[in-house]
Structure formats: structure tokens, C-alpha cells
Design brief:
The protein folds into two domains: 72 residues, Arc Repressor Mutant, subunit A, CATH 1.10.10.10; 149 residues, Endonuclease Chain A (Endonuclease, Chain A, 2-Layer Sandwich), CATH 3.30.870.10. The radius of gyration is 24 Å and the shape is elongated. The chain is built from twelve helices and ten strands. By secondary structure, it is an alpha+beta fold. The strands form two sheets. It has an eight-stranded mixed sheet with strand order 3-9-8-7-4-5-6-10, with helices on both faces. It has a two-stranded antiparallel ribbon with strand order 1-2. Helix 3 packs across helix 4. It is 51% helix and 22% strand.
Length: 262
């Protein structure tokens, strides 16, 4: 999980500004000297960054005579400000979409090694809106690599996020793949995995000797090639749509699973 400082830097704060905000938050009403001492920086450097934070509205200032005191905006206010920006972006989303180049442009293709690629896969899934469903085609070789891609603690966090957002999976896997994951997970993660929204079907390994992974999320298609330790992401609405149709054709041939990963 990102640290508070890392998250604050995503809200248009520099590392130093985020550090000063957190220090001021812990001190309550504080002077420049108080904050400088807390973070181990000079008074001049601290005041320089405080001035920027004042302009950004993250820090408030009060005066009693010549003495200036600084107070950090509450975390609730910071979150409310961020949510307001998100809502404003949503309001102009139709306009932004209209400005995007048409689908005639070449697809965006990204290639990563499997460790970094798996992070991209999980980021893509957890970024889906609430109630979304993605398509998954996976074989045993990909699952074996996937199980080692994160610690059990990281799996717990990821599974809880997808459950909280009610993100569903329309999955087609081989019978041997369906038996693999619960044997490798902790009991907690095994229960979380089963709690997720699964619409799973299986096919015999002899019918579909598929070893890799293909994931379709919106306009993105993600491939894992376990034998060469590589993840490829293709972003293109038409390509994703075509592969989704092909997936659905295979999916209806599979055998429904009443309880996924049971």
C-alpha cells in the first residue's frame, strides 16, 4: 500500500511539501521553527515550501502579533478537495473523449517483464469501475507464475479491493488450472478468492492445451507469456472488441463451475 507521503505527491505536492504537511498535521498549530525542527530542515527551506503550501491551500496561516502559526488542512478536507477534482473531470469526460483521436490510429502496445507486468495487470483490474466484469483465459503455466508474483499479504490486499468494488470475472480455464490456486493460497486468501464474483467455466486440458494468460479489460488486452517471462498490453477498442467476441464464443463451450476454486 502506498505511504501517505507517496499519495500526497500525487495531489500536486512535492516530496518536501508532503513531508512538511505531514509534520504540520502532527504538530497542530506550529511555528516555522517547530516544523523545521520536526523534519530536520533549515528554517529558510521550510518557509520556502510553506509558502507554496499556503498558495495551494493545503496549509493555513494565523498570526498573533508578529508570530505566524501554521495549521495543516484536515485529511477530510484534503480528500474532499481531491474528490471534487475527480467529479469535475467526470463532468468534462464527454468533451475529453470527443478530443481523442479516432480509432484509426495505431494501437498502443506496452511490453514488460512478468514481475512489472503483473503489477500492470492488477492495476488495470482494480482501476475498473464498481460492478465491472473482465474476461480471463488462463492456463496452468501462467497460474504457476502468477502465484509467485505477489506475497500472500499483497494477494490479500488485492482480493479485498476487487471484492469491495464488486469486480467480477468471466473466466475460462482448463480443469487443471481450476484446481491449482487454492492449494497455494493461505486459508484467508483462499476464502477471499472464493468470495469474489466468479462466472467460471472449464474445459478439459486435452481440448484446450492453453498455458498462458489473456485478460480483456475494456479497451485493453493483456497477455502473459510465462515461457518467456513477458507481459504485453495492447490498448485498442476494436482489437479488444474482436477478441472479446472470440472469447465469448469459446466461453459458451465450457462447463459451468458452481463454486469457483472449490
Amino acid at each position: 500500500m502506498p505511504s501517505p507521503k507517496d499519495l500526497l505527491t500525487q495531489l500536486n505536492l512535492t516530496d518536501h511539501e508532503a513531508e512538511i504537511y505531514l509534520a504540520a498535521l502532527g504538530l497542530g498549530s506550529a511555528s516555522v521553527n517547530d516544523i523545521a525542527k520536526k523534519i530536520g530542515k533549515s528554517r529558510t527551506a521550510t518557509y520556502f515550501h510553506l509558502d507554496h503550501l499556503l498558495k495551494k491551500g493545503i496549509i493555513k496561516q494565523s498570526r498573533k502579533g508578529k508570530l505566524a502559526r501554521f495549521i495543516a488542512k484536515s485529511p477530510e478536507e484534503v480528500v474532499a478537495d481531491a474528490e471534487q477534482i475527480v467529479n469535475q473531470l467526470k463532468d468534462v469526460l464527454p468533451l475529453l473523449r470527443s478530443l481523442r483521436k479516432k480509432e484509426s490510429q495505431a494501437p498502443l502496445i506496452e511490453i514488460f517483464d512478468s514481475k512489472e507486468g503483473y503489477k500492470k495487470i492488477y492495476e488495470t483490474i482494480t482501476a475498473l469501475s464498481k460492478g465491472s466484469t473482465y474476461r480471463l483465459l488462463e492456463g496452468p503455466r501462467a497460474v504457476a507464475l502468477e502465484l509467485g508474483s505477489m506475497t500472500q499479504a499483497e494477494w490479500t490486499e488485492y482480493l479485498k479491493m476487487t471484492i469491495a468494488k464488486n469486480i467480477g470475472s468471466k473466466a475460462l480455464v482448463t480443469e487443471s488450472t481450476q484446481r491449482m490456486t487454492p492449494q497455494k493460497f493461505t486459508r484467508e486468501n483462499e476464502l477471499l478468492l472464493r468470495k469474489r464474483v466468479w462466472n467460471m467455466r472449464t474445459v478439459p486440458d486435452s481440448v484446450m492445451p492453453f498455458q498462458e494468460l489473456m485478460l480483456i479489460c475494456g479497451d485493453k488486452v493483456l497477455f502473459l507469456f510465462a515461457d518467456i517471462d513477458l507481459v504485453m498490453i495492447i490498448q485498442h477498442e476494436s482489437i479488444a472488441g474482436m477478441l472479446a467476441l472470440m472469447f465469448d464464443g469459446l466461453y459458451i463451450q465450457g462447463k459451468p463451475v458452481a463454486h469457483a476454486w472449490a
